[in-house]
Every structure is written in C-alpha cells, then in structure tokens.
Specification:
single chain, 0% strand
Length: 184
C-alpha cells in the first residue's frame, strides 16, 4: 500500500516541520515508485492525483523550508565547504521543481488519455524522479541535515518558524494547516 504524502497537523517545533516535509518527500518517492510499478494500460488515478497534488504545491514548499534551514546553517558556519554544499542542494531543488513540472504534464496526459502518454516513457520519468529525489534526500541527510541536527537548538532560536510561515502564505490552505506561527 502506498504511503500518504500529506504532513501531520499540529506540529509545534519549526525544525520538526522541516523534518516532516522531508518525510513527505520520501513518501512521494515511494508513491512514484508504486505508480511506476503499477503502470500498464491504465494509471492508478488516485495515486497519480495524490502525486500530482504534491508535485504542484508541497514539493516546492518543503524544499524552500529546507533552504531556510540552510540559510541559518550558513550563518553559523561561514566556511566555503558548507556554502558549496548549500549551493549544490539549492541547485538540485531547482532541477527537481523543473522536473516535477515536466513529470506533471506527462501524468496529467496519462490521466486524461491524451496522446502524449507513452507508458514506457512515463515509467522512465517516474523512476528517474523518485530515484534522483531519494538519492538527494540521502545526500542532504549525510551532509547538511547532519549538521542541522547537531545545531538544532541554535536553529530553533532563529526565525525559522517565521520563514516557514512565509513559505506557506502563497500556497494552498492544506499546507498552511501544517504549521502556523503563534501570535505574540
């Protein structure tokens, strides 16, 4: 059974919100793999719709949340190594979002029976996306998020919560439910 790729509601700690977003990305990878494995004459409509919803809105927000953590890490560690890792991760996020747009076109075509849908090509695109994204998440865990976990207390005192709230303002209401900044 495919995992749900929606976040938990009611998370209080801003860093936990970012970690939850990373879990949602892993859920997307599992769902894309399941979708590719089941691909044949028809497409699993429910699973495809859920993946499309995540690709259209949640992926960009979750990656921007990670980038907010990176900015804070960059303030603590101004060395060239961390700065280079941050640039590499951010550039990969841009590529993932571009690829998500292309994959979305193919998934939508498959759902609506348009001629663009070649099951072999769609399967390849699905596998490329989940493979690349899951490798990226593993790389981030070893590099940037390993450091972020060690400096978590320092990150919590910064404006991470405010940045996460700003990331959600321009997105669908279901994302805003994941995290809201308490009133002062």
């Amino acid at each position: 059974m495919a995992s749900m790729i929606t976040g938990r509601e009611g998370i209080a700690d801003a860093f936990e919100v970012v970690l939850d977003g990373r879990e949602c990305q892993r859920g997307l990878c599992r769902d894309l793999e399941t979708l590719a494995d089941r691909l044949g004459v028809t497409v699993d409509e429910g699973l495809a719709e859920r993946c499309l919803a995540y690709l259209h809105s949640d992926l960009a927000v979750h990656q921007r949340d990670e980038e907010a953590v990176y900015r804070l890490l960059g303030e603590f560690d101004t060395g060239d190594g961390v700065a280079q890792l941050i640039r590499l991760a951010t550039n990969e996020h841009i590529r993932h979002r571009e690829y998500a747009c292309e994959l979305s076109e193919w998934l939508e075509a498959a759902l609506h029976g348009r001629a663009k849908c070649n099951p072999d090509a769609l399967g390849y695109l699905l596998r490329c996306m989940f493979d690349n994204l899951s490798q990226h998440l593993a790389w981030e865990e070893v590099t940037l998020f390993g450091t972020a976990r060690q400096t978590r207390e320092l990150l919590s005192g910064r404006d991470l919560a405010g940045q996460l709230a700003r990331n959600r303002r321009a997105h669908p209401a279901r994302l805003r439910l994941i995290y809201s900044v308490p009133s002062h």
